[in-house]
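Sequence in, structure out. Go.
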Amino acid sequence: MQITQPNKNRRKRRYAAPIGGLFIGLAVFGVITVVYLCFRLTGQILDNSQEKRMFENLVRPLVMFDPAPFEQPTDIAPDNLLMYSMWSTLMGEKQASYTYGETGELMVPASDLDVAAAKLFGPDVTLEHKSFGDYETPYFYDADTGIYRLPANLQLNVYSPEVESVEREGELFEIRVGYIPSGVSWQTDFSGGQGRPEPEKIMNYIMRQTDNGYSVVKLQYPEDAVDPAQAYAQQQAQLAQQQAQQAAG
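Output:
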């Protein structure tokens, strides 16, 4: 039986409708997929930013005072351990609970420093409680009461941390931290745009994840950084060589 032309057109239209719907469905699915991936990418960026801010707060008590590199926390000088633990305490959750003495000093229990030290450096660190600091910023320790007394208005010229990257390997985290000098603000270029201030130096903080958060286990120079002592030695060697050449000439 021969199919007439009108029947052929009807069949084409009948097949075209499902195929057209299929393409529309695929297009809609593609749009939804792209939107979903964009949201996931944005969420990952935000999560990473939150992670960086968290690590900045954790290392801030150390970055403030520009500590020397160390292989383990027990290598840190006792007075420096007290300093880092003190400021970790002052910037911690209990900062609003500390009171002032009759002469205006801020009073901080030594036991709170012990807790801060264990959280910041791990259980192997033991603080030697005593007075420390200098004439301008004294931290007086009262052994009878177990209380530290601090000046009410402390003015410090310190660094601020800016985490540039976070890399994880097992339970260890390598945190690349930029040191922003005190008083440095966002920079404005000639077009009126603003840029982040440049760090004065970069250090790597190696941290371990624990049941109570994260603790600092090592502080080191990045592989692409120059050790200041090594750079100074090289400069002195070059200067001596130049002086020897001038003397010989």
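Check: The first strand starts at residue 106 and ends at 109. Strands lie at 106-109, 132-133, 138-142, 147-150, 160-169, 172-180, 187-188, 194-195, 201-210, 213-220.
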